[in-house]
Specification:
alpha/beta, 174 residues, five-stranded parallel β-sheet, 13% strand
Length: 174
């Protein structure tokens, strides 16, 4: 079983993913970390040097590698489901969970992030909340295709664990 966490930047996919993986006895893969470890460059620096388009091609390749894994929780990048056929691939390879936040809370979380995010620098010269809102609205078309939408403010991870367990294939009894 593969579970893919999708959602906007700073929605907690990495932290929630690691926690849920531990609760379920799954391994955990963070696509952003996978990229940075393999290519030995930060995503921010890669965007600066080689472009977002080149990053998205590599990101798709890494995403497709996850299809060979089992009992895994995969934290995707915020844009992963929004490019190419990535969301269709995610849904055909496993289950997608969208970690949804309300806009003010998401903006607050983004203002506190420690990891440099390439798309946020574009928002610096504009109204930050307005920019995040508009960008999220573009991406929600993809996020809302998830199999399960988790209202992250609630923080009821037991609810998510129960949902995942309900999707696990039970062996036939003899």
């Amino acid at each position: 079983m593969r579970i893919y966490l999708v959602g906007y930047m700073a929605s907690g996919k990495s932290q929630v993913g690691a926690d849920l993986a531990g609760r379920l006895g799954f391994s955990f893969v963070d696509l952003d970390d996978m990229f940075e470890e393999r290519y030995r460059i930060s995503i921010y620096d890669f965007f600066e040097k080689y472009s977002e388009r080149n990053f998205r091609k590599i990101e798709q390749k890494l995403l497709h590698e996850t299809a060979s894994l089992d009992q895994v929780m995969v934290s995707t990048g915020g844009g992963t489901p929004c490019f190419f056929d990535n969301m269709a691939f995610i849904k055909s390879s496993g289950f997608a969970i969208y970690l949804r936040w309300n806009i003010p809370e998401l903006v607050s979380r983004l203002r506190k992030v420690k990891r440099k995010r390439p798309l946020l620098k574009e928002f610096a010269s504009k109204d930050f909340q307005e920019s995040v809102t508009a960008h999220l609205r573009e991406r929600e078309f993809y996020y809302n295709q998830a199999d399960y939408i988790f209202e992250a403010e609630a923080g009821d991870f037991d609810q998510v664990v129960c949902w995942i367990r309900s999707k696990q294939v039970k062996p036939a009894s003899s």
